[in-house]
Structures are given as structure tokens and as C-alpha cells.
Amino acid sequence: MKLQRxxxxxxxxxxxxxxxxxxxxxxxxxxxxxxxxxxxxxxxxSASTSSNASSISCAKGQILSSGSTAQQNAIEAWVKNYQQAxxxxxxxxxxxxxxxxxxxxxxxxxxxxxxxxxxxxxxTASSKKVCSGGEGISxxxxxxxxAIGYNLPGVSNLVLDAKTLAKIFNSKITTWNDPAIxxxxxxxxxxxxxxxxxxxxxxxxxxxxxxxxxGGADKADWPYPHAKAWAGKGGQAVAQSSGVASQVKQTEGxxxxxxxxxxxxxxxxxxxxxxxASAPVEASSANASQxxxxxxIVGTGSDLALDLSAAYTTKADNAYPIVLVxxxxxxxxxxxxxxxxxxxxxxxxxxxxxxxxxxxxxxxAPLPDAIATKVRSTISALS
Length: 383
Description:
By secondary structure, this protein is an alpha/beta fold. The protein has helices at residues 72-85, 98-106, 121-127, 162-169, 179-184, 205-217, 240-250, 260-266, 285-292, 309-312, 340-351, 353-357, 369-380, and strands at residues 38-40, 57-59, 61-67, 89-95, 112-115, 136-150, 159-160, 196-200, 236-238, 254-259, 272-273, 296-297, 306-307, 323-331. β8, α6 (205-217) and β9 form a beta-alpha-beta unit.
């Protein structure tokens, strides 16, 4: 089942808006938590008695959240499902950017925030002002490939590698029939069309993860430190993943980066990556999982920040190297008492086996079991 994103979602730029989503998922179970303001309910709000009814452990209330557009499609589906099962709950998620989500969280606006990168040390320090007796932690939740989308009529099976991507996004390769691109695509009639590259205008965890890959795989051609702000030369800046996808779809000769779900929804062809494996690797949920499985937890205490560097240079067959994991940012201790029950209930649901099981149909990759187990334990301990 494919997630059909409404075009109106792309225009969300102000205010926290209650997500309506477009995908109605089967109601799923979640791990229990110890919040007192919750009931196990059916979509009508009565106790569940059917084996097909919801087993979500509901909580009541309203919470605000904002941040990553990379996880927007997954959050839409999860919120739709949760709110159908829990009539007394309203979850408002504003898809803005990872940077803005962390700002909102550290200003005390959000119950939790979405980010495509774990908290930086200064962001963790700032979080202590709103996490009474605790601090913000990064909880992995949504995995997936960063797709490289392109618009080149007549070319349907484009192959690039880290070096050509770095040079394209740094304006060192400027036409599609450049010898370096032709060498990776023998027999393909590549036009002399000018390359028009698009990147994120806003601080973005997607940008951070893409530039981690470029620098990790080809430091010579991408000499910049990875960052949420774009550092490459040239190109055109566009707000949010949906904006980059829209520009690529409508601009001949374009190339840009965004989560696979955007490419799927907008029917944008994506680049296969030559990693040195036996065949170029396609951006897919299954192939991204092969990369994410190599991640290591490097966070301390309750923080579950991951190191994905092993994925960037992998030559394993079917392992897509440009991956990201989005995090939910919450206080380990000191969460607001009026929003904590619903925050834990919702996070418990999306981290559950059933919640994670919905991701592949939307172009994402579920967390590896070992990481998911630690995520559920961390959520249960939030206070």
C-alpha cells in the first residue's frame, strides 16, 4: 500500500496542524507503558474485544511536535492510525525541518521533536532548560534510504557513484554527458543537458546525512564537514524535502535528494549507486536495511545516537550506502506531566513491532531488532 501524500501538506509552513494523513493502517499493538491516563480501546473508544480491534494502549490529551520532513509520511500514517484507535487523543506534528524541530523542543513548545540527526552537544546542553532534572535524548525511530532523484527524459536506469555525486553537488560536473557519468553508464544516450542541482534551503538532517556520506566516501571531492546547512558550491536552494522533490519533478536536467517516499509518491526516478558491489544498488527499503544494520550505538546513558559510517563505504551486495535514521527527541527525565502519558503511549506504538512493520509500505526501513529492543526500553523509562 503506497502512501498518497496530499499536496496541501507541502504548504505547511506555520502553526502546528493536526495531521490527517492519507493512509489508513490496520490498528496495531504496542508495548505497554505505565502511564495512568490511558485505556486500551477500539476506534470507538470502548474496550477492545475483537481480535482484529486495536491493541494500542491509548492515552488522552493533546501534544505538539515538529521537525523532520524525512519522517513526515511515516508520522502521518502513524498519527492517523493512533487517532482512529484513541478518540481522546490529538497529536499535532508540524513538518518543518530537523533544525527547527530541535529549536521548538528546546524552547519548550514540543512534547517531542523529529530530527534526522542526533542532538549535538550544544543542543543537549540547551535541552536541560526544559527537561527538569534531565536532558534531551535521541531515540532512533525511522530508517530509510536518501534517494537521489533526477529528471532526464529517456534515461531510466542512471548509475552514479560517490565521486560523481560529490562533483555534481559541488558544481564540478555540470552537464549530463560528462565523461565521468558516461563511464558509469555505458551504452546510455546521455544528453548534453545542463545539470540543475537542488538542495535544502533549511537546516536539514537529510542534508547532514547526505554530506556525511559524501565526505565519508569521497573526502577529496567533498572537503566540507557534514552539517545540517548546505556547504556545497552552486545549486539551487529549496525549502523542505517536498520542495526539493517538486523542483526535480518539474525541471528537466534536475537532480536532488530526499527520502524515498517522496520519489515514490511523485514517481521520480532514482539513481542506482555504484559502490563496488557486484551490481549498482537501488534505493529501496530492503537495501537500506542492509546499510542500517551496520550501525553502532554511540550515545551514552539513555541516548541512542547511532554511527552510520560503516554504511558509507560498504561494498556488500544489496547494501544501499546513503541512509539516514530519524530520531524522536524527548527528555529522559523532566517531561511535562500533562503530556508525558500521551507522548509515551504514542512513542511506544510507533516503536512497537506492528508500528515498525508499517514502514516498508511507505518507503522506509524498520529498525533492526537489536536497536528496536533498546528503543522500547528507553521509551518505557521516560519520566
